[in-house]
């Protein structure tokens, strides 16, 4: 690595750690209804939205009502995205005259964006008009990210309230998260990206003449506004097919740095906000520390794999972002896979086997380091509850978490939230290898093919959305089966989380005693990290060994796939 690479990494980590408490305090205030002074001029708009929709923002919702409102809104948003894709040939702001998207791909895309996955079985600049991109995908980027923040707020209330029937109001949480957090940040980032050369245009695609005399169509569009929210909201996806490797979407080292930072900044702030909302700041620091250690470990091992693994020198530039270098490509690959972001600035398929395997491992952890906006935090809390349960078994008493007794019902809910995405990954892989269409979709042979398929299902079921590189994802198995996996990965976690929050809100707070296992010290951090590793090892170790592990050994012997 060069001195510039080291400086870039150091600046990134400093900005992430320094920005976390600043943004976390802002987020916590908004979710508590305490709007920062500089944004209070937007409160008339907030009240107007409630009046127009006939909503009472102070009505307290039970977990069932909260869940019902959340699911209904997200399904309605998905239906709107689907309709825009199918009808875009008859809609305005379609200067290239794109026709309707094939039904399977359209359904997959609608589900992908409503679940905050943004898996793309299409190339945006070749199949979607400006209206479908903005009113469909762009709007859903805001709503899916705000949904994650709303679930975070509800979960925090579940642990902070005592003998309460409700978890707050979903509509108020959604509107405030969008209006006071996501919109201002996205506007600021979009303006900076435009200054760096990210396109923001409604003009038709111009045609240029190359030096060889051939005609070349130059894709344009309102990209900067969508790029900003896709990164900040951990949506991923790309306005252009090759995502943030496209020079119109990520043109300069500064745009690359800011987009990489935007991927992790809000998820990290969610951890700080959770500590403020629950009054458990020391516990939140433990969660943040565990997340940061996992991220730094993955990043360090990935960099070593790219620079020092025997046989990887021939792959040093292939598939990497040559405008910025190997190190920024690896930093982005790890940031986008520890968060449920899925945007890429390089082809993960051409990373060295270990680096590609680490990106896969990051997703298979369950997108909890730092995870998606809101979703990473509540996913980590489910693992923390499982760790508390294991600690309770060791000391022989009912476990407690943030003053709430954790009983069999809560443990079952946590296990369901953890295992449902895992089941979707493994079943999807099994069907892919058992069917001719599933096997034909891969672009490589040997262990690389296993990694490619495992990565695809791990990405969809964990709501990440990145692709390994050369998988053909337009067949029925990956469009319809992938849509089901994405739904299970999103709502199969959200519903148990809200049910657990409702159950805990109704309980009394138990004061700590001599038998209480503390969750705010280094011992719990070690237990939590061990629970994460053991969980993934038991479920995925054979597949990871036969995929990236075997390919690493074969690469050292001079074999590539």
* Whole-number total of structural domains: 2
SS summary, helix count = 18
Shape: globular
Strand order of the biggest β-sheet = 1-2
Strand content: under 5%
Largest sheet: 2 strands, antiparallel
Distance between the termini: 26 Å
Q: Which range best describes the helical content: under 10%, 10-25%, 25-40%, 40-55%, 55-70% or over 70%?
A: 55-70%
Question: In terms of structural class, how would the helical and strand content be classed?
Answer: mainly alpha
Task: Give the SSE string.
Answer: HHHHHHHEEHHHHHHEEHHHHH
As residue ranges, the low-confidence spans are: none
Q: Would you give an account of this structure?
A:
The chain is mainly alpha-helical. The protein has 2 domains: about 25-210 and about 215-270, no CATH class; about 380-555, no CATH class. It is built from 18 helices and 4 strands. Helix 10 runs antiparallel to helix 12 (about 355-365), helix 12 packs parallel to helix 16 and helix 13 (about 375-395) packs across helix 14.
SSE layout:
Layout (H helix, E strand, L loop, with lengths): L2 H29 L11 H11 L9 H25 L15 H12 L9 H4 L2 H31 L9 H27 L10 E3 L5 E3 L5 H10 L20 H26 L2 H28 L17 H13 L14 H12 L10 H21 L4 E2 L2 E2 L2 H27 L1 H5 L5 H16 L14 H30 L16 H35 L5
Antiparallel strand pairs: 1-2, 3-4
Helix pairs in contact: 1-7, 1-9, 3-4, 3-6, 3-17, 4-17, 6-7, 6-8, 6-9, 6-17, 7-8, 8-9, 9-10, 9-11, 10-11, 10-12, 10-18, 11-12, 12-16, 12-18, 13-14, 13-18, 14-16, 14-17, 16-18
């Amino acid at each position: 690595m060069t001195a510039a690479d080291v400086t870039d990494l150091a600046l990134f980590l400093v900005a992430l750690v320094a920005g976390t408490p600043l943004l976390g305090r802002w987020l916590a205030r908004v979710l508590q209804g305490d709007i920062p002074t500089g944004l209070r001029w937007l409160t008339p708009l907030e009240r107007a939205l409630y009046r127009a929709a006939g909503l009472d923002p102070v009505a307290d919702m039970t977990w069932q009502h909260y869940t019902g409102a959340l699911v209904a809104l997200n399904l309605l948003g998905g239906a709107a995205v689907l309709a825009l894709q199918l009808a875009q040939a008859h809609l305005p702001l379609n200067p290239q005259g794109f026709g309707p998207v094939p039904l399977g791909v359209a359904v997959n895309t609608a589900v992908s964006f409503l679940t905050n996955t943004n898996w793309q079985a299409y190339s945006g600049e070749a199949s979607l008009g400006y209206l479908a991109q903005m009113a469909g995908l762009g709007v859903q980027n805001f709503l899916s990210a705000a949904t994650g923040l709303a679930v975070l707020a509800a979960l925090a209330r579940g642990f902070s309230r005592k003998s309460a029937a409700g978890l707050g109001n979903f509509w108020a949480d959604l509107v405030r998260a969008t209006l006071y957090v996501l919109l201002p940040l996205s506007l600021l980032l979009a303006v900076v990206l435009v200054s760096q050369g990210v396109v923001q245009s409604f003009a038709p695609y111009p045609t240029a003449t190359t030096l060889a005399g051939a005609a070349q169509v130059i894709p344009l569009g309102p990209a900067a506004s969508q790029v900003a929210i896709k990164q900040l909201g951990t949506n991923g996806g790309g306005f252009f097919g090759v995502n943030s490797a496209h020079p119109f979407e990520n043109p300069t080292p500064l745009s690359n740095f800011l987009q990489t930072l935007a991927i992790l900044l809000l998820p990290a702030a969610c951890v700080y906000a959770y500590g403020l909302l629950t009054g458990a700041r020391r516990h939140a620091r433990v969660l943040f520390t565990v997340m940061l250690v996992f991220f730094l470990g993955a990043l360090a091992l990935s960099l070593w794999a790219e620079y020092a693994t025997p046989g990887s020198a021939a792959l040093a530039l292939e598939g990497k972002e040559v405008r910025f270098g190997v190190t920024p490509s690896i930093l982005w690959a790890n940031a986008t896979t520890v968060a449920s972001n899925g945007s890429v600035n390089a082809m993960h398929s051409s990373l060295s086997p270990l680096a590609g395997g680490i990106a896969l491992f990051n997703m298979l952890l369950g997108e909890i380091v730092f995870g998606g906006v809101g979703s990473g935090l509540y996913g980590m809390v489910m693992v923390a509850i499982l760790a508390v349960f294991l600690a309770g078994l060791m000391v022989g008493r009912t476990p407690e978490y943030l003053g709430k007794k954790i009983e069999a019902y809560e443990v079952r809910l946590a296990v369901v939230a953890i295992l449902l995405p895992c089941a979707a990954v493994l079943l999807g892989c099994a069907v892919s290898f058992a069917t001719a269409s599933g096997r034909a979709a891969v672009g490589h042979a040997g262990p690389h093919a296993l990694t490619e398929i495992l990565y695809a299902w791990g990405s969809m079921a964990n709501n990440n959305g990145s692709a390994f590189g050369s998988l053909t994802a337009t067949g029925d198995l990956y469009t319809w089966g992938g849509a089901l996996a994405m739904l299970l990965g999103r709502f199969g976690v959200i519903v148990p989380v809200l049910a657990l929050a409702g159950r805990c809100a109704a309980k009394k707070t138990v004061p700590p005693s001599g038998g209480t296992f503390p969750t705010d010290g280094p011992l719990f951090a070690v237990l939590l990290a061990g629970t994460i590793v053991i969980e993934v090892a038991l479920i995925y170790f054979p597949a990871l060994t036969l995929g990236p592990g075997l390919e690493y050994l074969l690469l050292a012997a001079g074999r590539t796939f």
